[in-house]
Amino acid sequence: MRVVFQGERGAFSEEACHKFLGKNIELAPCASFEEAFRRLERGEADRGVLPMENSLAGSVHDNFDLLLRHHMVILAETQVRIVHNLLVPPGVTFAKIRRVFSHPVALNQCRAFFRRHPKIAPVQFYDTAGSVKMLMEQRPEDAAAIAPAAAGGIYGAKILMRGLEDDKANFTRFFLLARTRRGWKAERAVKTSIVFTTPNKPGALFKCLAVLALRDINLVKIESHPLHGKPWEYLFYVDFMGRPTDERCRNALRHLGELTDMLRVLGSYEVVK
Amino acid sequence: MRVVFQGERGAFSEEACHKFLGKNIELAPCASFEEAFRRLERGEADRGVLPMENSLAGSVHDNFDLLLRHHMVILAETQVRIVHNLLVPPGVTFAKIRRVFSHPVALNQCRAFFRRHPKIAPVQFYDTAGSVKMLMEQRPEDAAAIAPAAAGGIYGAKILMRGLEDDKANFTRFFLLARTRRGWKAERAVKTSIVFTTPNKPGALFKCLAVLALRDINLVKIESHPLHGKPWEYLFYVDFMGRPTDERCRNALRHLGELTDMLRVLGSYEVVK
Hints:
With 273 residues, chain A is of the alpha/beta class. In chain A, 29% of the residues lie in helices and 34% in strands. Chain A folds into 3 domains: 2-80 and 170-178, Periplasmic binding protein-like II (D-Maltodextrin-Binding Protein, domain 2); 85-161, Periplasmic binding protein-like II (D-Maltodextrin-Binding Protein, domain 2, 3-Layer(aba) Sandwich), CATH 3.40.190.10; 186-272, Alpha-Beta Plaits (2-Layer Sandwich). Chain A contains 9 helices and 15 strands. In chain A, β1, α1 and β2 (26-30) form a beta-alpha-beta unit. The interface between A and B is large, with 39 and 38 residues.
């Protein structure tokens, strides 16, 4: 089984791949989220693993937009605890470090570290694990990376410090995607993600939420994204507990169809602990 | 009147400053949103102008978080049409350009330009106008910047192309902030921004929206932001039309207070066209 994910080997997405599918998989790193979607769509991979939301930084809007553009099946979701570590090429000591490379979101989640060490400057890089890879190739003597521990083993870097993140309640939620429903089990799906737009009228969103609330369906997330081409109008992404084969949910979705301009069920999926 | 804003002279925020306050103001550029808030709070400036939302990229979450942490008065909102231009130091011709510097959001809004010119690479920089300033100082022969037209006049750069943005329906919404209510006029305030958290129970958000909908109060925006420390729980930011001096709105806010764990009125303000 070949699995596409965004980032370099050792990224947090790789940990999510193993959590979903075990160790016996072929990992296919991609430069961008879009490339991961495209390769999965073309059949160059069997599964895709994409980060959808971080409990501190919020949703990965790009991936929600890509889900809407590409017709994929969501098989499962899981969450990975984000632990940021300080990695260096062998030989670099803490006293020498003046620059720390990482993804902007990771740097932003380790502010206390940079406050405690004012001589060390954060430097934005395209990827967490990718910054370890770059340091191991270029071997600067004054630089470290903030990255997952797994990147240490993969590139031969040393872990100098663990748990640099300011807030330990730091989790990222991933989706396991496939091109077809093969392998998808209706009875395991417990959560459903939908997206819709409403007519631009007072009370329109309220009516949509009433459809769920009046049927005691538990809405667990709602988020608005800008609707391109229509300033200050929004797409609503909603997650609720339930599967479309339940009569309540089926009725709610039919009812939502009456109230929305556009409605798409992105998927119903199992939750992997 | 001294006005703080984030970015370099010539930034889109500067255009918003003039739209709110006319030409006769003293501009005080700040390196970060946080610095702008801090300087305004300390009394080092009379007004602050901060971008809150872009019609394509979505909300500027950092500024909503800062509004919640600092107690500021929102006097007004306005919107600025975002036009991206290609600027170069005098002497640089289009044929020579291989790199274009700008803020990541601006680069991302000019994808068609980079597709049409595959020899030109986008390079991320901390600010749109700041990249013009940097080019005028360093004078590389192969580089341009994507920035507001105003940055050309300020730094002496030449505008080679106008309107590079993919989507012309590109607006940014700004708030005009002050430390005190002096200058705030209740009768002009037509829009109110609030933020709240709900108990983690099914239907909690639905009830909050009912408070507005059942009083025919027009909700114009709702957005969820991650609640730090509580993974997968959210702060809800809501904008509605109305002012707290209206009885309907006053009642709705009192009613919301009964249903929410935390409720804050960020401000009621006028809308400057």
